Amino acid sequence: MALSKDEVLAGLAELVNEETGLTADAVQLDKSFSEDLDIDSISMMTIVVNAEDKFGVKIPDEEVKNLVTVADAVNYIADNQ
Amino acid sequence: MKIVVTGLGATTPLGGDVSSTWEALLAGKSGISTLQQTWVAQYEIPVTFAGQAKVPASEILTLQESKRLDPSSQFALIAAREAWADAGAPEVVPERLAVEFSTGIGGVWTLLDAFDTLKERGARRVLPMTVPMLMPNGPAAAIGMDLAARGGVRTAVSACASSTEAIANAITRLKSGEVDMVVAGGCEAAIHPLPIAAFAAMHATSRRNDEPEKASRPYDVNRDGFVMGEGAGALVLETEEHAKARGAKIYAYLVGGSVTSDAYHITAPDPEGSGAARAVLSALEQAGAKPEDVVHINAHATSTPVGDIAEYTALKRVFGDHLENIAISATKASTGHLLGGAGAIEAVFTVLALKNRTAPPTINLDDQDPAIPLDIVTSPRKLPEGPILAISNSFGFGGHNAVIAFRSYD
Question: What InterPro entries does the record point to (chain A) (predicted)?
Answer without folding.
Answer: ACP (IPR003231), ACP-like_sf (IPR036736), EAL_dom (IPR001633), PP-bd_ACP (IPR009081)
